[in-house]
From TrEMBL:
Lineage: Bacteria, Pseudomonadati, Pseudomonadota, Gammaproteobacteria, Vibrionales
UniProt-listed InterPro entries: DmsC
Organism: Photobacterium lutimaris
GO annotation, biological process: anaerobic electron transport chain
Gene Ontology terms: cellular component: membrane
Keywords: Membrane, Transmembrane, Transmembrane helix
Protein name: Dimethylsulfoxide reductase
Pfam families given in the database record: DmsC
Transmembrane portions of the chain: 6-30, 42-59, 79-95, 107-126, 132-155, 167-187, 199-219, 231-250
Amino acid sequence: MAWFEWPFILSSVLTQMSIGAFIVLGMVLLSGKLCFGQADRLHKAMLVLWLMLFSALLLREWNLMLADVADGYRIGAEALLSITFFASALLYWFAEKALIGSDFIRKCCLVLAIVIGGSYLIHGLAVRSEHWLIASHFLATTLCGGTLLAHACLVRAQHKVEELNTVLPRLGTIIAVICLLTGFPQLGELSRQIEATGAVMPFVSQVISLGLLLAVVGVWSMPLVTKSKPVLGVMTFALALSVVSSYFAGVGY
C-alpha cells in the first residue's frame, strides 16, 4: 500500500487491535477473576475500544471516498465480520452496563462476540496465508497489539489480579517473537526485490516495523524486569509504538 492510503491502513490497525483486545478481555471476564467493581471499571475502560472501532469505520469510508472507487461500497467478508463484531460487542456491553437479562444471557452475548472476533482472526489469517510476512504482521497487530491494549485497559480499570500483569506481557512477547522469527526471513525476498526493481521503501518499511515491534516488547516488559507495577503512561507509549509499527507494516505491503 502507498503512504497516501493511510486512512485505510490506520482503519485496519485500529480494527485489528480492538478485536484482539476484546477477545483477551472477554476471556478475562469469563474467568471470573475480576470482582464486580473491577469488572465495572473495566467496562468503562472498554469505551476506548468502541471509539477505535467507530474511528476505523469512519476512516475506511473516508478512504473509499478519497479513492473514488465506483464499487467502493461493496463490503468484503473481513469488513462484514468487523461490523458484525462491533454490533455484537456493543450489544453485550450495553446489556452488561444496564444489567439487562440474566447473567447467563449476558455471558452468552459475550461468548458470541468472542466467537465473531475469533472468526475475524481466522479469516484474516486465511486470506493472508500465502504471504507469511503479511500474516505475521496481522498476528502481531491483532494478538500482540490487542493483548497490549487489553492489558492497558485492565491497568486503567485498576484491576487487582497480579497474575495478569505477568501472563499478558509474556504472552505478548511469545506472539511477537513468533512474528519476528516469521518476518525476518522474508526480508531477504524484499532485498532481492530492491535489486530487481529498485523499490527500497517496502524493505525499509518492514525493517522499521519489525524494529518497532521489538521496542514494543521491550517497553511492555519493563515492569517485569524492574519488578514493578505497570504504569498506564508507559503502556500508552508502548501502544503508540505498536500502532506505528503496524502502520509501517501496512505501508510495506
